[in-house]
Specification:
- This protein has helices spanning 16-70, 168-174, 177-195, 198-215; strands at 73-77, 92-99, 108-113, 116-128, 135-140, 152-154, 156-164.
- It has a seven-stranded antiparallel beta sheet.
- The chain is α+β, with helices and mostly antiparallel strands.
- It has four helices and seven strands, in the order αβββββββααα.
- It is elongated, with a radius of gyration of 35 Å.
- Strand 4 and strand 5 (135-140) form a beta hairpin.
């Protein structure tokens, strides 16, 4: 009976040089996968931020519409500086319609003028009108040296609750059809991107990572 001799070959010892070469060979693949993952994370974060901004803007618009119908609150734009420095030109004011009987001296109110634009000035004097609900208001702009030429007969006014300087140009820009069209297209694209099937986006990300790994 013949004795079989089994020869065992020991693996060659790993040297520092071989370890470095193996690490360099694996590095491009891992770096590519990390780059794809971080890029997808940044795009996802940016999309979330834009969605939140759009949601907040939409919520503000809805609130303003509700307040306009329920509390008679609207916006007015200051094109001149007659109320400077309290309310400079280019400001947007939040105004609320109230009965003239609730107006006090020192209030800043907006009154309508037949055939002319409304005027927003400070109340200097209040006199009784021809009826119990009517008042004669003498107004003056803070930047003016004299009262307005004649008292204004009113039964209701819009009192200024607060003003935001510098916002009027933004409101005017939103009324531009080109700006509105661009915002509509941008919002539509954002909504489509946000609600696009996540599986398709995930598959695209995995395919991109696989392609980079194969290329490396």
């Amino acid at each position: 009976m013949m004795n079989e001799q089994v020869t065992t070959v020991a693996p060659a010892p790993l040297t520092r040089r071989s370890l470095r070469e193996d690490a360099r060979a694996e590095e491009p693949a891992s770096r590519g996968a990390t780059r794809v993952g971080s890029g997808a994370h940044v795009r996802g974060l940016l999309g979330e931020i834009l969605l939140w901004v759009a949601a907040v803007a939409g919520f503000v618009c809805i609130v303003l519409v509700i307040l306009a119908f329920t509390a008679h609150i609207t916006l007015i734009l200051f094109r001149t500086g007659s109320m400077s420095p309290t309310i400079p030109a280019g400001s947007v004011a939040i105004v609320q319609q109230i009965p003239a009987s609730e107006v006090h001296v020192g209030d800043v109110v907006t009154v309508d003028r037949p055939g002319q634009l409304p005027v927003t000035h400070r109340v200097r004097l209040i006199e009784d009108g021809p009826s119990a609900a009517a008042r004669l208001l003498t107004l003056r702009g803070d930047a003016n040296a004299q009262d307005d030429p004649a008292p204004y007969p009113v039964s209701t006014v819009r009192i200024v609750r607060f003003a935001i300087p510098g916002l009027a140009p933004v409101i005017v820009a939103f009324g531009n059809p080109f700006v509105l069209g661009g915002l509509t297209l941008g919002a539509s694209a954002l909504v489509v991107w946000a609600f696009w099937p996540k599986r398709a986006r995930a598959a695209q990300t995995r395919n991109g990572a696989r392609d980079e790994v194969d290329a490396a």
